[in-house]
DNA sequence: CCCCTTAAGCAGGAACCCTTCATAAGGGTT
DNA sequence: AACCCTTATGAAGGGTTCCTGCTTAAGGGG
């Protein structure tokens, strides 16, 4: 039914499976001893030992000093989060935010680049690329495994910019293909609201929730959907564009009234102090806001609605009336939370998306023909033991390692 | 991240993987020779031979007469679609439709049972169970592997009836648990609109489309969502209940006007003949209908909207104005098609859901801890070679077969 | 009746995993 | 300091699975 490959396995597939199992056990946790991994993966200690040996030579794991314990000290291994880096990029109209992170998602370094005036398509690209190159130059030992660029506008599944009002010069640009030529690593492009949703799911208000709606309201309002734990983009990446339905009022004055960022915060502050006029304005905003939201909530019946973007400064002042109105409009109202992630949200989501790609590649023992971006892997870096090559299946690497060892 | 088991593999896992690969190659196709399977699965002919031997002894495949060809005639094998049956049940207010199908989804037999008056909870259950038992009695050799019951109303993920207006006596009933006690096979319960969507995806207007909205309009209007090729139920199974938003008009008179089934067909016929009053009524209906649909379309941005239920008799007479209005309301309007499946739609979807369970069990080489229903498998049927046991992993069966052979 | 073509069957070899037993390396105790 | 206890490490043996190469079998066509 799906594009599931029919291929069944050599014994090598088994090995690959076990490489993955061990890696998965080690990933994101404290260093573990061989025996602990053996228990966790239900493999024999012997096998784990051999697998760890391979992984160590490939550079994916590393031995650390043994811990204190009774009996003979056990060797401990940790996942080498520094075996690769990923880059998340948030492109705004006048500035660009870049985050470099390791494979555990720990932020290594953040950088901001500014763009004055009205840059051309190429100028914008070059500025971003140069900023990224500068950031990478500070960490020369690292190997970039994936990057993701967030764009305000509609981006299709292949990473082409379909329609961006804030960045008109990028309309029609095949951004993913462009960026994958930069550093010889897979590159992705994605709508910024979608990335914000990924960030909330990862480290924000939507942790542990697999079905939620992410509202993003700044100068205009968009929404992103996470369903079944996965981003739902829709046919052309336009899922969540409910503002298109005039009757729901999302383009009406009730919303515009509160969307100028300068004024907004003051109104919310006044409402918090109990100023009747401000309370009334917020309430009217919430009623309209809830109406459009209800249409989406009734459609997908999510667990949660996250309010983010410039409007999220309101916090409970807005979330509270939203709860009230949604409770009236929906048979089965979801939770409502305001985002607490800051300006780094979108870039953080881009990091997550890049990491997802790395994970998919690491942990899908079938050759994973799924949605790989244009991949000009460039020259092989001579397979130094400390620099795992990226776009080949694990078992192939092991195979070549063996050959080299026996020669 | 997901509940992915960490288990890595014995050599037995490899075997299981290859059993599945061969089964998958054979499934739903014409009989194949060993060499053909070898090519399709990229396993060696030798291995395929051995695997086929196991599968034959387990009753999953069968040798058929060799075809005409040059050279030594090759033995040919086919998937034994009759190695098990599934049952799909559509429960209505006054009647119940049952379909028995084989593992290829071929319909074996259909039966209808009627229910007069206002049966109690138990009476309705008993009537259905007896009808099913009668149907199964006609095919004593078959082994029932799963069944699914479709219910008009909200059904949660565990198969409990949350809220059913047409079947009030079933409110709160744990239908899946109830039905899984009937024949010692896994049983599922699901909302009828959801099942209709599965049917359309399988053999109806939505073939080949992985993101679509299924509208179901009879006496009332509901909707089902298929996203990413999978049913999206929502938190409490209430996804698609857009009628709850009054402003969209789905509870208003424009729709009620056309929903009495007796009258409806006449109006559509008159509109097809060009009667201005009828055309006007259909157009007004379509406008309101499109408005509620647009809210969902803008939310999920699907490829297709399927119109089904009593209203689908309209065909193009309704689909056409729907296209027009959706085109105005949506930035990115999807295709619109009227269902052409008949009264068996829901029962057919129930068959599909039951088959999905069988497939998942057959083809997921990990022990598949996912969403298994209450499973009182009952007494083991002494493992006759022609009656594969169902709720155990394939490789365990093979193992026991080996043991018996060497003893 | 012989030749050609294709399939089936039978070793031989390699990769992988598991179990078992002996050995090593610490800490605590006498 | 020597001994014991605990736990980890290392090597050997056995079993399963898969692949490759070779020989044998079974048809059809000249």
UniProtKB/TrEMBL annotation, chains A, B:
Region described as Disordered: 369-397
SUPFAM superfamilies referenced in this protein's UniProt entry, alphabetically: Actin-like ATPase domain, Winged helix' DNA-binding domain
InterPro entries registered for this protein in UniProt: ATPase_NBD, HTH_MarR-typ, ROK, WH-like_DNA-bd_sf, WH_DNA-bd_sf
CDD domains linked: ASKHA_ATPase_ROK (cd23763)
Domain HTH marR-type, chain residue ranges per copy: 22-65
Residue ranges with Low complexity bias: 375-388
The family this protein is said to belong to: Belongs to the ROK (NagC/XylR) family.
Protein name per Swiss-Prot or TrEMBL: Transcriptional regulator
Species whose genome carries this gene: Kitasatospora indigofera
């Amino acid at each position: 039914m799906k594009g599931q490959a029919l291929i069944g396995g050599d014994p090598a597939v088994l090995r690959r499976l076990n490489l993955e199992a061990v890696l998965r056990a080690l990933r994101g946790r404290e260093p573990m001893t061989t025996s602990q991994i053996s228990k966790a993966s239900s493999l024999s200690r012997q096998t784990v030992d051999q697998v760890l040996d391979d992984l160590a030579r490939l550079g994916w794991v590393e031995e650390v000093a043994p811990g204190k314990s009774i009996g003979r000290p056990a060797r401990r291994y940790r996942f080498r989060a520094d075996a690769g880096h990923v880059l998340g990029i948030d492109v705004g109209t006048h500035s660009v935010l870049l985050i470099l992170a390791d494979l555990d998602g720990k932020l290594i370094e953040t950088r901001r680049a500014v763009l004055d005036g009205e840059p051309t398509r190429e100028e914008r690209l070059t500025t971003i690329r140069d900023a990224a190159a500068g950031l990478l130059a500070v960490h020369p030992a690292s190997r970039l495994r994936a990057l993701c660029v967030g764009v305000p506008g509609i981006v299709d599944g292949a990473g082409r910019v379909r329609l961006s009002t804030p960045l008109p010069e990028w309309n029609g640009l095949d951004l993913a293909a462009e960026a994958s030529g930069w550093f010889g690593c897979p590159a992705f492009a994605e709508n910024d609201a979608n990335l914000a949703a990924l960030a909330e799911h990862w480290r924000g208000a939507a942790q542990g929730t697999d079905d939620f709606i992410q509202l993003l309201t700044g100068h205009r309002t968009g929404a992103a959907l996470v369903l079944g734990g996965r981003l739902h983009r829709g046919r052309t990446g336009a899922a969540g564009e409910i503002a298109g339905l005039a009757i729901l009022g999302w383009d009406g004055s009730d919303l515009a009234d509160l969307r100028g960022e300068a004024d907004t915060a003051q109104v919310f502050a006044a409402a918090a102090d109990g100023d009747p006029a401000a309370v009334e304005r917020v309430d009217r905003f919430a009623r309209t806001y809830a109406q459009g939201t209800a249409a989406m909530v009734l459609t997908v019946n999510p667990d949660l609605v996250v309010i983010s973007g410039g409007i999220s400064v309101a916090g409970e002042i807005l979330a509270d009336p939203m709860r009230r109105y949604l409770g009236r409009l929906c048979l089965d109202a979801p939770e409502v939370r305001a985002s607490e992630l800051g300006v780094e949200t979108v870039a953080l989501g881009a990091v997550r998306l890049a990491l997802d790609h790395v994970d998919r590649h690491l942990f899908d023992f079938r050759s994973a023909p799924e949605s790989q971006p244009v991949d000009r892997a460039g020259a092989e870096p001579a397979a130094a033991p400390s620099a795992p090559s990226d776009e080949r299946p694990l078992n192939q690497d092991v195979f070549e390692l063996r050959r080299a060892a026996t020669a």
